[in-house]
Amino acid sequence: MTATTATPILEPALAYALWAADYPAYAHNPVMRAEERAMLGLLPTDLRDTVVVDAGCGSGRYMRHALSRGAAHVHGVDLSPEMLARAAAVPAEANAASRVALVQGSLDALPLGDGVADLTLSGLTIGHLERLEPALAELRRVTRPGGRILCSDVHPTGHALGWLRDFKAGGHRYAVRHTPHLYSDWHAACLRLGLAIERVLEPMLDPTDIPEGAHFDRQALDVPVALVFRLRRIPAPPPGSLP
Questions:
Q1: Cβ(97)–Cβ(32) under 8 Å?
Q2: Is 123 exposed, middle or buried (0-12, 13-18, 19+ CB in 10 A)?
Q3: Which of 91, 117, 175, 238 has the fewest CB atoms within 10 Å distance of its CB?
Q4: Pairing state between β 117-122 and 143-154
């Protein structure tokens, strides 16, 4: 992530169509590594008998982690057909094709049934949507009552400092559109939707992840780079129970 005013900012579908060819299924920059350490710290180590939805699965990095921890089934959803094509290599590499289903769809209109997931993941995707609450509502809908949601986004501090989610394709530099969602936005949306905020992490960069000679905003070492939530879908009270 760099701060510049000359980089063209693209809509997510176009950006990932260009980016997909060079987008690996692992955390490939210091910000992603910081975010992933926080997410994996909240992800159960044993996912046997667990159905997982990876919403905004991209090239499949969290699908890979879910499968390695024994997930019974993983539904991967992404807006970009090009990224889904990359994600298709993950179950094949893990010899887990029968445990994975991939489908194209948007985070605010997931093509999945209600309550299909015991655990829903969404890594660094929700900021691609301008409105937070419809996306959170969909993550809640596909998660069973009592189930959990692990969700991360680029920290809004970075947006305030002018950072972009930028990449190179065909010798040119581009950025993908990103909307910052403040903690207060998350708190208000979760309250309205019946989602309990169980944990909030704000990971920092690890200086050892930064390549020698890298050009980056030195302020990034002093501020959190991601906002990571563990949410729980609050079960509805039984009919006729007292409020």
A1: no
A2: buried
A3: 238
A4: parallel
CA dihedral 68, 38, 157, 56 (to 10 degrees): 20
Check residue 178 and report its DSSP letter.
Answer: -
pLDDT digits (tens, 9 = 90+) for 74-97: 999 999 999 999 999 999 888 999
Ordered by start, the domain boundaries in the chain are 51-159+181-233
Fold of 51-159+181-233: Rossmann fold (3.40.50)
pTM higher than 0.85 for the full model?
A: yes
d(C-alpha 73, C-alpha 52), whole Å: 6
Distance set, CA 226 to CA 36, 66, 199 (Å): 9, 21, 14
What phi, psi does 80 have (nearest 5°)?
-95, 120
Instruction: Read off the pLDDT of residues 128-181 as tens digits, 9 standing for 90 and up.
Output: 999 999 999 999 999 999 999 999 999 999 888 888 889 999 889 999 999 999
HEC-encoded secondary structure of 189-224: HHHHHCEEEEEEECCCCCHHHCCCCCCCCHHHHCCC
